[in-house]
Amino acid sequence: MKWDFNGVRDFVMTKPLLYKGKAYFGSWGSEFYALNMSTGKLTWKWKDTSTTRMFSPAGCRPVATNGKVFIVAPDQYMTCFDATDGHIVSRYYA
């Protein structure tokens, strides 16, 4: 292992998505992360506004296509992020 990342709030349950040089994963702290795979540095982070861990992005496995990363958390909201900078492209109840 080249690096480690200690910036995760709570813990990670699922395997990360490895896509275009970044590792994407959610934590039970209701956050979703993108790390640079070469350096381990945080590229961007999204904080879910849910007040309960039951709806955390940690409970999902992200997928990606065409420069977008998608998650469907247990709250049944699908969120689409721009893979590069993390801005939300769309979010709706699935």
Automatic annotation (TrEMBL):
Gene3D superfamilies: YVTN repeat-like/Quinoprotein amine dehydrogenase (2.130.10.10). It comes from Segetibacter aerophilus. It comes from the Bacteria. Residues 21-88 form the Pyrrolo-quinoline quinone repeat domain. Pfam families: PQQ_2. This is Pyrrolo-quinoline quinone repeat domain-containing protein. InterPro entries: PQQ_b-propeller_rpt, PQQ_rpt_dom, Quinoprotein_ADH-like_sf, WD40/YVTN_repeat-like_dom_sf.
